[in-house]
Amino acid sequence: MGTLRTSSYMIPVKLESEKGKYMLIHGYTGAMDIVTEQLLEKIKSITTYHDFSESTLQTLLKRGYITTKTQDEEYEYVARVACALHKKGHILNTSFTWVVTYNCNFRCPYCFENRAVKDSTHNFTLTLEEVDNIYQAMDKIQPHKELRTSILTLYGGEPLLAKNKNIISYIVGEGRKRGYRFNAITNGYELEHYLDLLSPVAICKLQITIDGPKSIHDTRRVHYKDHDTFDKIVHNIELALKRNVKVIVRMNTDNHNIDQFVELKNYFASIGYDSYPDFKIYSAILRDYNSISSAEHKELKFINAKSYIDKLLQHNTYEDCKDYGLSKYFLDSMTKKKNLMFRSTFCLAQLNGYVFAPKGEIYPCWEVIGDNRYLIGRYTKEDLKWYNQKISKWREIDITKQESCSKCRYALLCGGGCPARTLERKNEHCAFFKKMFNNSVNLAYARFKLNNSII
């Protein structure tokens, strides 16, 4: 056997609720184990085969914490795993998002979309012919129904504008014939016009942004004509919940409103929304985009990862933040007693995700819609036209192509972060993920103990 060494992919996380104990996680075997601080120190300082009993040594080797691989051999192994995962993802993950319109009735200061198009007086909305062309394009892109996602996402601009009712009804009607259901990313302001389409078999899930209590929300989620939006949106949420539609309320969080998340959460509890099993509220850190103007910057106070997480912990609301699904990911592994699953990409834009927009446009990601630099194709009634060089720029990105990821012990757990943010040269994902990682492990372990389970 080769020389023994501590694996470069061992990740120790201190368990806050267990004095002197750590959760060991391995970045390419997927192992998770609780160890004492003394055992951790022995693993870190291993020099010979005699440092442990034979049975303990074999367990540590099997779990990956100790290895005979050199550091370069570990890097090469992870690269091979990443490539295999990427190929598998290309085959199994075909998803479709529909930009129903570029137009919007809100003028939010942090919007990342092409404002010249979105706030235009011109109507950039899908036509009936374009809807037919998109369904046809979807069949061409992925002819095997079992390899397509069964949920289509409606996006904008604001997809659920009252004036879009006819086209949305047509999209949903045609989709249901084909076995699809729908999610919508909406501001919820004109939702009352869509009650007949809200159901578990049609538009079954809504994400609606509310940026804090009324006094804060109404200054940030601004309608282009009306003054206040909070009360109307809250009322519309209730209408959706009564139709057994899942509603996810998102609060875009910065230093202006982070201290009011608890107040917003308590408000929804006070009016009984938390009694609906399909209602959820979460906090998501507000991102700084290049499209945000200098004037709009003055209205916002962006918060860094450390301050954001520290504030959530201070207010005991960490479990309500967008943590990339980490706490659920760890909890599932603990509960099922199975090793962690891996990923080599961050999102479907790197695999087989397609975003269809008006004017026959196809993008890889909704964060770049309206920007022709990122246009990857066009659809018409007759055919599909692809810009292969642009497609490759997205589809070939994985953790092996990013220098900061290729030798990172978190790489197969993280997927490398948002490619759109990387292209904007604003990838703050590394610091954010690592800070989230430790807290999510502890949250998952606390939930695990609460369920009276044993690892």
Description of the structure:
The structure is a single chain. This protein is α/β, with parallel strands linked by helices and 455 residues long. It contains 17 helices and 15 strands. Strands 11-10-9-8-7-6-12-13-14-15 form a ten-stranded mixed β-sheet. It has a three-stranded antiparallel β-sheet with strand order 2-3-4. A two-stranded antiparallel sheet has the order 1-5. α12 (326-336) packs across α17 (429-450). The two termini are 31 Å apart.
What's the pLDDT, averaged over the residues? Answer: 92
The dominant shape is globular
What distance separates the N and C termini?
31 Å
Indicate the structural class: alpha/beta
- What radius of gyration results from the CA coordinates? 24 Å
List the total number of helices: 17
Biggest sheet: strands, sense, closure? 10 strands, mixed
Strand order of the largest sheet: 11-10-9-8-7-6-12-13-14-15
The overall strand count is: 15
Residue stretches low in confidence (pLDDT < 50, at least 5 long) are none
State which percent range the strand residues make up.
15-25%
Which range best describes the helical content: under 10%, 10-25%, 25-40%, 40-55%, 55-70% or over 70%? 25-40%
Give the SSE layout.
Layout: E1 5-6, E2 10-14, E3 21-26, E4 32-36, H1 37-44, H2 54-63, E5 66-67, H3 71-92, E6 94-99, H4 115-118, H5 128-141, E7 151-155, H6 165-177, E8 181-186, E9 203-209, H7 214-220, H8 230-241, E10 246-253, H9 261-270, E11 279-285, H10 294-297, H11 305-314, H12 326-336, E12 352-357, E13 361-363, E14 377-379, E15 384-386, H13 388-395, H14 403-406, H15 411-414, H16 419-423, H17 429-450
Parallel strand pairs: 6-7, 6-12, 7-8, 8-9, 9-10, 10-11
Antiparallel strand pairs: 1-5, 2-3, 3-4, 12-13, 13-14, 14-15
Helix pairs in contact: 12-17
